[in-house]
Amino acid sequence: MRQPLLDSRNFTAAFMSAPALVGLLLFVAVPFLFAVALSFTNLRLGSPLPLEWMGFEQYRRIFSDPSFVRALLNNLVFVVVVVPLQTVLALVLALLLNRRFYGTTWFRTLFFMPVVFPLSLVAVVWVLIFAPGPNGMMNAFLDLVSLGSWTPRDFLHDPYFALPAIMLTSIWQGTGFQMVILLAGLQAVPAELYEAAAIDGAGRRQQFWHITLPQLRNTLIFVVLVTTILAFRLFDQVQIMTQGGPYDASTTVMFETVEAAFARQQVARGAAMTVILFLVVLLITWLQRRVARQEREVT
Amino acid sequence: MADVEYRHVDKIFEEGTKALEKFSLAVEDGEMMVLVGPSGCGKSTALRLLAGLEAVSNGELLIGGRLVNECSPQHRDIAMVFQNYALYPHMTVRRNLEFPLRMMKLSKSEIARRVEDAAHLLTLTDLLEKRPRQLSGGQRQRVAMGRAMVRQPQVFLMDEPLSNLDAKLRTQIRTEIIRLQKSSGVTTIYVTHDQVEAMTLGDRIAILNAGKLQQVGPPQELYDHPANTFVAVFLGNPGMNIFDATLNRDTGMLQLAAGAWQIPFEPLLARKPSLSEYMEGAMLAGLRPEMFSTSTSGAEVTVESVESLGHECLVYFTASCVVPGRDQKTQVARLPGPALYETGNSIQLSFDPERLHFFTADGDAIA
Fold first, then answer.
1. pLDDT category, B326, cuts 50, 70, 90?
2. Of A34, A152, A233, B85, which residue is most buried, by most CB within 10 angstroms?
């Protein structure tokens, strides 16, 4: 027998989820549909030209714009470098902090602190660290460790160092978040498995490869996915530290989008860029789910 | 294969809990030793110390004559079956069985051979490609056994390996364990809280209580000659009844349960002369529930409750002749036949005085 669509239980469920659903609809779904619609027009704020349907013209223009292509490439490079580095670093920190020793809680707090700081504040601090000239903190540090053979650079205005500088800032800021999630994953591994492995003759390293990593698999997939998505949304550090420069060396899709929509008021163009970003993120999520599902099927 | 020895081993945990105190036990080569006791008695700790999962606080641990106090678990050449099996969930049954062998860096063909043998022996062949979560409790238990066996270790350690199984399967696997242990001849230390398991499995049993070893010996010996009231009450289902007892010089009678039973003590003294030392003093007497029988010449007791087991029944009673003001301890008799007794009624129980066990007021057996 079919249940009536609006019996009391369904009504309660709908009622309870309404605030969240309305918010999601109003602030995510509707604006995004607007963006999709706008991306097929020529809308530009303050332009005297009439609104016109342009089809895929915006997309064609975007992909023939070297700045946007550079931005997409920068994002890819950023993901390829930052995601593995940050994940490995977070895993190492999590493994270290998973042991019991004096001051564990203090270290955990310390490593998590950058996550709590506003990104803009972190970026400002790192601008100071990357200050040009021999008195800049990073320059002075590199001078010290290279025993004086380092030539001071203006990192944030150097075509080769601007993006790596932003990467370093992002890793410093983001590692704590991954560390906490991995730590939770580590603590969920039953101690018994390590005991069994030790008795079965596995040393520390073998326990890591045969117990820790496989048991952390799902946590790692989650962490990598979230970091990848966040990496594609890279904006704050770029805005504050380099403004995308020099010569687009550190520009990103998000930065290009904001520039187009709000600095140049090319709303339609900005909308098209967000649609592209959305598709990229969607693709990554889909890939991740495919990988994760395969694992679920065999277990 | 090797013998195992605990020499005056203490285990004190960081927070100060004394889990094991002056624990000494020698397990012979090829023997099946069962450590048994109530929960928290230190039996699992004793096993974990031997496995190297916990560090010994004081004393010495020897495996095959070699001091292993400082030796890590992977170098002790032991295998362990955990209570929850601790199978590697991300590996197939085959990979689980292979794991210890791969850690030993055996050749591929040798690994395959040993896994096939173990799988055949434990009828796991059809399950080799499955993952632990696809298996039933009994199958997981067999995989855990297999993973311990492929190693061909010097010592098997088993930590309550049957406690997660239903009663029927437990009996079945118990028989299996005995068969495997006898055919492999590997020294085995088996921890359980279940005295039935202890009685049926062990070549010898070591009974622990509150971190201290109470008695070691073959099951029947412990049952027949318990070293103290703890062992007497712990073994047997239900355990031994303990009565207060006095030898009354004036009447020449042994008074049990505040005089509910009066028995001439002359024949008892003839058999156990040391009893005379306790004349008029405080003493305890024990009697197994199955030693009671109903008779018109017995002492009158009040039935508290009855449990029928079909072919026999357990009658819980208080001896009616109790001095006012003393706590009335419930005792139990195991009587043959269906339950014909009703709560609140009086029945008369008697027994052969030869079957009594005697203990000091502190609970130690009187030799």
1. very low
2. B85
Tell me how far the alpha carbon of residue A268 is from its chain's centroid: 25
Closest to B190 in 3D by CA, of B145, B125, B252, B147: B145
Rounded Cα gap, residues B246 and B254, in angstroms: 6
- DSSP one-letter string for A103-145: THHHHHHHHHHHHHS-HHHHHHHHHHHT-SSTTSHHHHHHHHH
Taking the complete model, does pTM exceed 0.80, yes or no?
Answer: no
Rg (CA), chain A: 24
φ/ψ region of A115 (left if φ > 0, alpha if ψ in -120 to 50, else beta) reads alpha
Fold adopted by A59-298 = MetI-like fold (1.10.3720)
Q: Any residues with CB less than 8 A from the CB of B114 and at least 6 apart, and which?
A: B101, B106, B150, B152
Cβ partners under 8 Å of residue B106, min gap 6 = B114
Residue spans per domain, chain A = 59-298
- Does any CB of chain B come closer than 8 Å to the CB of residue A192? yes
Q: With CB atoms and an 8 Å threshold, state whether B104 touches A201.
A: yes
User: Order of strands across the sheet with B312-319?
Assistant: B331-336, B312-319, B293-308, B346-350
Report the complex ipTM.
Answer: 0.81
Q: Which residues of B touch A (CB under 8 A)?
A: 51-53, 72-74, 76, 78-80, 82, 84, 86-91, 99-100, 103-104, 131, 133, 147, 151
Chain-centroid distance, C-alpha A234: 6
pLDDT tens digit sequence for B23-62: 999 999 989 999 999 888 888 999 999 998 988 898 899 9
Place of tokens 């895929």: A56
pLDDT in tens, B140-176: 988 998 898 888 888 999 998 888 888 888 888 888 8
Pick from B165, B183, B2, B19: which is nearest to B81 by CA? B165
